[in-house]
Amino acid sequence: MKVFDLHCDTAGECYNEKISLFSNDLHLSIERAAKYDEYTQLFAVWIPDKLRGDDAVEYFNNVADNFYKELEAHKEYVSVYGSGSETPVKALLTVEGGSACGGTIEGLKALYKRGVRVITLTWNAQNEIASGAFAEGGLSDFGKEFVRTAEELGVVLDVSHLNRQSFFEFAEFARKPFIASHSNADIVNNDYGRKRNLTKEQIDVIKNAKGLVGLNYYTEFIEDDEARGIDALCRQIDYFCEQGYEDIIALGSDYDGCRINPVLHGVEKLEGVYKELLSRGYSNDLLEKIFWKNAESFFNKMI
Ligand SMILES: [Zn+2]
């Protein structure tokens, strides 16, 4: 079985808590992911909104140093995605919160040099680039320069966490395909979910841009009184399929960044989830698209 997941916060969690990325009790470990035939994970360095400027750059570098040290120490199991190594786990460093560039274009180029190939523009607050789901405002002038330079470098931009104004201003300005690495469809009846999930209009924009939407397992983004656990995930998959979005859905677990229902709690559960979805009548063809194929074909073209 193959898996391709667009977002987790495990790298930061391991750095902050001094936990091994290889073997741990978190949602994700390299050791448990390596049980799959092929497992590709985008590992985000989440930049808390209290960090800006040099503090954000320093934090990013600390987490990245620790991440690459772990990869080197376990290189028979894990290698950098796209490096050509034949390991069961492929890992790609990403950034959640563009403040990791320290508010400069030189800083963005430095992120690229450290292997970052996906950047989520903001977290929930406003930063130098744009405004997140809990802030007012849109894409800044610096944000436009950031977007254009990232596109020229070959960094995929990620609209998860943007507020609606920033989303549409970014989408209008963008020239390359972009993704929402960990966002769901706005069909959940709670306030937090509504702020972070995507409207049909937004998903249409991502589809037209030939992008991807990674399904986030965060309880509050998929569950409400109508559906929980696997039922809640199925409700999302059903919606995406009914609306003709089956070629843009992927996985964006948000492992180690959020609360997750026990049935989806941890990378080792994915095989059971896949079997459960098959037993509920979803085709192998559709599930392969969601679990890895859509993401793999996107990243083969983009980086
Ligand atoms: Zn997030």
Entry summary:
This protein is α/β, with parallel strands linked by helices. It has helices spanning 10-17, 30-33, 53-73, 105-113, 141-153, 164-173, 191-196, 200-208, 219-222, 229-242, 270-279, 284-302; strands at residues 2-8, 38-46, 78-80, 89-96, 118-120, 156-158, 179-180, 212-215, 249-251. It has a single domain, classed as Metal-dependent hydrolases (TIM Barrel, Alpha-Beta Barrel).
Structure write-up:
The chain has helices spanning 10-17, 30-33, 53-73, 105-113, 141-153, 164-173, 191-196, 200-208, 219-222, 229-242, 270-279, 284-302, and strands at residues 2-8, 38-46, 78-80, 89-96, 118-120, 156-158, 179-180, 212-215, 249-251. Helix 4 packs parallel to helix 5. The chain is built from twelve helices and nine strands. The protein has a single domain (2-302), classed as TIM Barrel, CATH 3.20.20.140. The protein is globular, with a radius of gyration of 18 Å. It has 303 residues and is an alpha/beta fold. Strands 1, 2, 3, 4, 5 and 6 form a six-stranded parallel sheet that branches. It has a three-stranded parallel sheet with strand order 7-8-9. The site of zinc ion has 5 residues, from loops.
The number of strands is: 9
**Overall 3D form:** globular
Assign the CATH superfamily.
Answer: Metal-dependent hydrolases
CATH topology: TIM Barrel
Poorly predicted sequence stretches spanning 5 or more consecutive residues: none
How are helices and strands ordered from N to C? EHHEHEEHEHEHEHHEHHEHH
Q: Can you give the mean pLDDT?
A: 97
Rg calc? 18 Å
